[in-house]
Amino acid sequence: MTATDRPGPPLWLLAELTYRCPLHCAFCYNPVDFARTSADDELDTEAWLRVLNEARVLGSVQCGFSGGEPLVRDDLEVLVAEAHRLGYYTNLLTSGVGLTEDRAEALKRAGLDHIQLSFQDTTKELNDFLSHTRTFDLKQKVAHTIKANGWPMVMNCVIHRLNIDHIGQIIEMAVALGAEYLELANNQYYSWALLNRDQLLPSREQLERAERITNEYRAKLGDKLRIFFVVPDYYETRPKKCMNGWGNVFLTVTPDGTALPCHTAKMLPGLSFPNVRETSVGEIWYDSEGFNRYRGDGWMSDTCKTCPDKEKDLGGCRCQAFMLAGDAAAPDPVCDKSPAHQVVLDAVARAQRPGAVSTAPLVFRDPKASRQIAP
Amino acid sequence: MSIDTPTLASRFRMQWEEAQQAWVLLYPEGMVKLNASAAEILKRCDGTRDVPALVADLETAFDTTGLEPDVRAFLDMARQQQWITEA
């Protein structure tokens, strides 16, 4: 890299504090081999404090505490307090399990700026089925705690074939709970969701109906609730600008301290990613092989290099290219110029069949399943 | 509907970012990088002055006149973005 294309700062720091989670969502983006990282392998408080300090010096300003379920960590309040002191805008991404009123108050005192609460669905039965635990009543209680502490609330609901037809109820619930933002995040097919893709990918008709209903609510609700509808990329002909560019703004630190340009990048073969235990965040961001590998366009295939949309999407997602085309440097197969685009078309074609597309049971994210898949 | 006495909305935080050499607005999972004039206007949206006073303050600070149309246009946009609200 020359000095002129030196990347900007890692504006977004995602601290994945733990893979431990009381939920078992079938669409989880944690790696399928997450069970290889045990609680003993997790970074300790001191190491996280150092990461927060080093990243802030580089210019990180948004900090997300995520997981797994970050509330499992009993030092969360300490980490939030330090992030707040350093000037980060602090976000907690949680399922809500473990957010008692006492902990909410402690987090408020620590300076937590915002909580994003995830929901699976408005229908209790379906919610419990998809997250494989009985947590829905609790989430409603937690939403009230969030509002009572004066936090802005983003509700996040992962949308897929099994809940997309409830989109109207989901929006109604966000309004009723006082959310300021609602992310209707169409499932992206990585990790656990890829295992369950046939069961989770909606049909085109389902998707169009959901978008139409969402737009009707946007018109009706105006400024009261900001709704983000993330289109599933399988239905696009050009890929997404994944992570807004590899090593461009996002820095993820996984529970064991591995630093990644995105939370699924660890799957890419032949690429070594540094660990914050041994390497400073500055060296990781600017000098490591893993972060420099897909910056710029030197790595691109001719299909991408000569494409007029190159700057718009930067060739799409490296993980998706690896998963679907077997080559992390290939064009993202979502792109209709990709030689492997048929893989996406086939999955989409299967999704148009009515009813349940697959008779295979959903694979739920839990340590036992993880150990079976990746012993 | 225009705004009389603007103040920064509670869900936004404005701060100077050394690494970006810019003022930014921070909000849940997002950031807006402000240019210098936007920052000068928003710094003065603290609920203590109405728009004419805000304009007068800017014109004094920068020793100029005729800023009102630009300031009002910016405040309209900022209100639409929900950055500011009526004090």
Structural commentary:
The complex is a heterodimer of chains A (375) and B (87). Chain A has 375 residues and is an alpha/beta fold. Chain A has a single domain, classed as TIM Barrel, CATH 3.20.20. A nine-stranded mixed β-sheet of chain A has the order 7-6-5-4-3-2-1-8-9, covered by helices on one side. Chain A is globular, with a radius of gyration of 20 Å. Chain A starts with 11 loop residues before the first strand and ends with a helix. The mean pLDDT of chain A is 92. Chain B is of the alpha+beta class. Chain B has a single domain, classed as Orthogonal Bundle (Arc Repressor Mutant, subunit A), CATH 1.10.10. Chain B has three helices and five strands; from the N terminus they run E-E-E-E-H-H-H-E. In chain B, the strands form two sheets. Chain B has a three-stranded antiparallel β-sheet with strand order 2-3-4, with helices on one face. Chain B has a two-stranded antiparallel sheet with strand order 1-5. The longest helix of chain B has 13 residues. Chain B is globular and about 35 Å long. The two termini of chain B are 15 Å apart. The model of chain B has no long low-confidence stretch (mean pLDDT 95). Classes of the chains: A alpha/beta (375), B alpha+beta (87). The interface between A and B is medium-sized, with 20 and 16 residues.
